[in-house]
Amino acid sequence: MTDGRTAGSARAFELLEPLVRAATVRVHAPVRGYESPGSRTSAPTWGSGFFIAPGWVLTCAHVVGEGGAAVRLTGREVGITFSSGGRGATGTVTGRVECVLPERLEERRPARRALWDLPDLALIRVLAPVSHACVWLTDRSRPRFDEVAYFGVTEDLGAPEVTGRTTRLRGSAGNGAAIRLGDDDEIEPGMSGGPVVDLGRGEVVGVVKARRHAGGGGLAVSVVQLRTLPMPSRGQTGLYRRVMQGHDLHHYDQHVSDLDTRRTWTDVHGELPAPEAGPFEGRGRLTPGERTTLCGLLAELPPPGSSEVVRALAEAARGEEPDPQPPAPLSWRDGLGLLHDPPGGNGEAAAMLRYATDVSVADHREPPSPGADEELWDWVRATAERLWRPLRRELGERHERGLAERERRRRARSGRGPYGPARAAGGLPGGASVLLEAWAHGWEDVYDWRVSVLAGPAHPGRVTPVDSGVRATPASLPEALRAPLAEAFRRCDTHEAAALLEVAVAPELFGLAVDEWTLMGGAPLGTQRPVVLRHPGGPASPRAPERWARVQPGPLLDERIDCARGRPRTPAPDWLAAQPDNTVAVHCRTAAEEPTLGALHALRDAGYGVVVGRRPPADPGTPCAPFHRGLREELAEAGRAEVLPPRLQALRARAHGADPDAYWAAGAVLVWDDPARALPEDEPLQGDL
Predict the structure, then answer these.
(1) What are phi and psi of 653, to 5 degrees?
(2) Closest CA to 167 of 118, 212, 227, 115
């Protein structure tokens, strides 16, 4: 132990060290087959890692990239040497890298001895059925800046072994993605990829990343960055949720099993030195056994349909909006991490039991295992017996209301309810969307930007900021927005659909090719989700709601506004105002130039909420007639405006896939000013003067 540690942290280190050492592994070059316990491999150490779920090892991306600059990381096989029995025996098995974060490390890696981009994580799947220990991961979005221990493989005595040292967390870096380790002791080569453990709570909060070139201390990556694993295709369970489900069920099974007498993480959590607490602290928090059981019961349920579902239930249980700090919560377990230290002196136990009650009656994207939701409620009711009588009554009433509301929603979705279906067939979902705002920075060719989550009609005017920036050049905008947009999509995407991206810019910026940006997954953004343009501040005309209501059900009439048989024209305001309300205005010329720019302002003044346009092709001699003919056929086939955003997404996908019948849609854009989705009216500060 390092000098200066408190007696409490010394005792915590003593209790936690055997558990952490048992789950920490050595990462090295792969070996042939599976070596028997007790064998040792001579392959040089690349770094460390640790088991977070049965069959899954977490480490740093730069560890699995060791010695293979030209080798693709994902799919690479590595060797894993681990503790195979908790009594000093080791085994070696082959693992395969399933994913690295960020994904762009596959194409762009740093120079030798340079820091790899955050979060610099790799997830390895073990390719053989082996018995091993797993660490307990934190559920908090932010670590406590307190005493911790870090572990990894060293060769102090000439042979590789797992060692641990203690220090303090000194702050965060990388917008919370990394945490700073104090200089109480030195991080040695080989410790990269090892776990960082909060000694007060007994949970892994980070992954050792780098040491300082001069002196001790270094950086670790927050384990919460695992939530940035790639989102799954619609209808599939993502890798993050599957791994965390395995984590929680492993510890739950260990807790309830009587087949092994070795101490579990739950046992040790109950033996950790208690912090100073008030007289009601025992009733204010769940016991370690109750917390492990709750996580296990939540893991038995189907995962939530979206991040916003988790946040909404956490807000209802907490009594205020939870910390918006990214990354977004993706699992039911993540929701528990939003309930620590609730406001007004309310206990965590009460907030977590309210949350669990709401989860037990939530709409699940697929039927849970028979009795799983009832088992969760039975546990909540039994656990509440040791708490306050008013809370027990409140939870019972909450459960009854939740059952009734769930039944009402089911009837509504089936078309029998008083409010009709939840969404129009083939249209947009009615939930949260991602809002990207951009402003030209004076006369310079640079932009200020802001990414937010727009809650939608269910919560009018509610906007949750994600990130913002200033003075980005057009060429740098996609890279600057990569991480903020990914975080916003994680918050808004659901099991059923990718969230709408609303791009609110002045009409002269309607040529911004956001739908063509390639931010993730290798495909243009506009082929992955609906992308629409909006005027900042929303509709400017009192007639806008009337036109919007009429054009949505169709039938649709298309009208060219800025050209007549290929020649530019300027429409008269009176003529625009006189067009039928179910008219879809169409422009085919450059939005930043006249007559189109003036026409776009006039359309907004006349209340047009649905406008289709295009970015002119690179060859100025290309005629616009194929665009107008193709669009007229598309509008006739669509029949109503409410299905245009997903239909335009499908057209972009066809054009990207080299469908010759969709080439006319290249560069097509859709202005979609829904009056029910109010936009913020303020602009971000433009930096220091």
Answers:
(1) -65, -40
(2) 212
Q: For residues 677 and 502, give the distance between their C-alpha atoms in angstroms, rounded to a whole number.
A: 10
- Cα distance between residue 680 and residue 657, in whole Å: 36
Phi, psi angles (nearest 5°) of residue 482 = -55, -55
Question: Would you say 119 and 229 are in contact if contact means Cβ atoms under 8 Å apart?
Answer: no
pLDDT reading at 421 higher than 70: no
Q: State the pLDDT at residue 77.
A: 94
In the chain, the largest separation of any two C-alpha atoms, in whole Å, equals: 88
CA distance 620 to 618: 6
Check: CB of residue 559 under 8 Å from CB of residue 577. no
Sequence length of the chain is 689
Structure tokens at 297: 């019961």
102 preceded by cis ω (within 30°)?
Answer: yes
Tell me which amino acid residue 445 is.
D
d(Cα 639, Cα 649) in Å, to the nearest integer? 17
Under a CB-based contact definition with an 8 Å cutoff, are residues 204 and 188 in contact? no
- Residue 146 pLDDT grade (very low, low, confident, very high; cuts 50, 70, 90): confident
Q: Is the pLDDT of residue 280 over 50?
A: no
Measured distance CA(370)–CA(373) in Å, rounded:
8
Q: What is the DSSP letter of 384?
A: G
Token pair for residue 311?
Answer: 């946040």
What gap in Å lies between CA 152 and CA 623, rounded to an integer?
65
- Two structure tokens written together for 555: 């039938």
| Other Cβ atoms closer than 10 A to 121 | 29
Specify the 3-state DSSP secondary structure of 88. Answer: coil
**How far is the C-alpha of 656 from the C-alpha of 527, rounded, in Å?**
8
Here the contacts of 395-403 (C-beta below 8 Å, separation 24 or greater) are: 395/353, 395/354, 395/357, 398/354, 398/357, 398/358, 399/357, 399/360, 399/361, 402/357, 402/358, 402/360, 402/361, 402/362, 403/361
Is the CB of residue 137 less than 8 Å from the CB of residue 152? no
Count of C-beta atoms within a 10 Å radius of residue 242: 17
Of the chain, the percentage scoring pLDDT greater than 70 comes to 90
For residue 532 the two structure tokens come to 């629409």
Range 621-629, long-range pairs (CB < 8 A, 24+ positions): 623/566, 624/563, 624/566, 624/588, 624/589, 625/566, 626/663, 626/664, 627/588, 627/664, 627/665, 627/668, 628/558, 628/560, 628/586, 628/588, 629/664
What single DSSP character describes residue 44? P
Comparison of pLDDT for 628 and 6, the residue scoring more: 628
In whole angstroms, give the CA distance from residue 330 to residue 335.
Answer: 8
CA 67 to chain centre: 31
H-helix or E-strand containing 123? strand 121-126
d(CA 179, CA 242): 26
Query: Would you call 412 helix, strand, or coil by DSSP?
Result: helix
| The pLDDT of residue 276 is above 60 | no
